[in-house]
Amino acid sequence: MKLCEFIRPASLAQARAALRKLGPKGMPLAGGTALHFMPGKAPVSAVDITGLGLSYIRQKGAFFEIGAATPLSDIQRHRGPRWAMHEICRRISTHQIRNVSTIGGNIARVFPWADLPVVLLAMNARLVIYSGKMKEMGADEYFSSQPARLFRGGDLLAAVKIPVLKAHHGFGSVKAARNAAAFSMVTIAALLELKDGKIADARVAAGSAIPFPKRLPSVEAALIGKEPSAEVFRAAAALAGADAKWCKQEGMSAEYVANLAEVSIVDALERAAEFARGRTA
Length: 281
Ligand SMILES: Cc1cc2nc3c(=O)[nH]c(=O)nc-3n(C[C@H](O)[C@H](O)[C@H](O)COP(=O)(O)OP(=O)(O)OC[C@H]3O[C@@H](n4cnc5c(N)ncnc54)[C@H](O)[C@@H]3O)c2cc1C
Description:
42% of the residues are buried. The protein is globular. The chain is of the alpha+beta class. The chain folds into three domains: 2-48, 2-Layer Sandwich (Uridine Diphospho-n-acetylenolpyruvylglucosamine Reductase, domain 2); 57-163, Uridine Diphospho-n-acetylenolpyruvylglucosamine Reductase, domain 3, CATH 3.30.465.10; 169-280, CO dehydrogenase flavoprotein, C-terminal domain (Enolase-like, domain 1, 2-Layer Sandwich), CATH 3.30.390. Strands 4-5-8-6-7 form a five-stranded antiparallel sheet. Strands 9-10-11-12 form a four-stranded antiparallel sheet, sandwiched between helices. Strands 1-3-2 form a three-stranded parallel sheet, with helices on one face. It is built from ten helices and twelve strands. β4 and β5 form a beta hairpin. The structure holds flavin-adenine dinucleotide.
């Protein structure tokens, strides 16, 4: 992508007005780390959204609210008793990339290897979009197809709201990659709600090894009402093929990827159960 101009608006309203005026010749620019993944030779005007006060993490009632321009390194460093976002952020690329790459940039245009959409689907996050006023959308709707569809008219992602984990909630994520900085081969995230020793609710999502991140409803249904044991997790993970068509990747057959995904689902569920037990004990 070729940038021909930088526009530095002073407010979200100004940024949206500039984008609306530019139409297809303009684009929001956050960390800029995805530019070389984006095709196209036509010159584009970049509307810089990093000076609009969108870099913050704060707890507001039942949610952690993360500003859309918050760098992944800030999320990685944040800690709190009912917070689990740091785990996946430290698995994304290198320090240099995480210092500039933002949560909004990772999820406004989803690339096949993106890890955060998987985690946000499992966590049932809410997305705050600025369209002249703030409006909210649940993760299931937001990630139902490429989110870039929502921003073509100049609207902007303003924030991400992550539910504060409850005492009986457990969260686990797994990113299988060839080395620490590599793109994911498969990413899995799981949120379990335990009640009286049984799984009362489950959200399990996958990404990277499938064309677009999604939840795994057959896996989720097979968990509900059961005890959080290794056998239950293995039986549920074996159903993932009904929800996701695992794609072959460089050096890996589709069968290999399917097996990797199943093992990663079991791993994520075990982590989530351990997390929940550790917090309810
Ligand atoms: C070498 C390398 C390895 C990587 N590995 C991984 C990985 O393993 N896993 C992973 O998840 N990510 C990985 N990434 C990061 C990912 O691919 C993107 O580059 C990054 O998340 C984009 O964030 P950004 O802030 O730089 O966004 P930008 O590059 O600034 O923008 C990305 C897109 O989002 C739009 N956009 C940005 N912010 C907003 C907003 N608030 N509202 C509306 N639209 C917006 C832009 O217009 C653009 O279309 C890697 C990146 C690199 C360079």
